[in-house]
Amino acid sequence: MPPIVEDHVREALKKVIDPELFVNIVDLGLVYTVEITPTEDDAEKSNVKIEMTMTSPACPAGPQLLGGSKDAVGRMDGVNDVEVKLVMDPPWTPDRMTEDAKDQLGIF
Questions:
Q1: What is the pLDDT of residues 50-68, one digit of tens each?
Q2: Structural domain for 19, as ranges
Q3: Which of 14, 36, 73, 76 fits 24 for a cystine, CB–CB 3.0-4.6 Å?
Q4: What is the pTM (predicted TM-score) of this model?
Q5: What distance in Å separates the CA atoms of residue 98 and residue 38, rounded to the nearest whole number?
Q6: How would you classify residue 29: left for phi > 0, otherwise alpha for psi between -120 and 50, otherwise beta?
Q7: Domain membership flag for residue 77
């Protein structure tokens, strides 16, 4: 089994769609960091820690996005444990979005 790499984790996270904006959380720029650590007792497995934010502190979809992120990464082959941490610093801004996301939302 190939090792888990950040790009694969981010691809899995693209399956998590913001229910209000209909854009995935990676393209929205909500995923800040992905940290992958091999487990001590099984060289075939890794733990994944994700730090992500919301478009606003009062985002009603927050619990759904956090749970969806944990679920999407947890389904990957080779993942032992997933921790998703909500951070609000630095605050999210539209500058973090990909060009694709900006196009989808009509932001120029």
A1: 999 999 988 899 999 999 9
A2: 6-91
A3: 14
A4: 0.93
A5: 30
A6: left
A7: yes
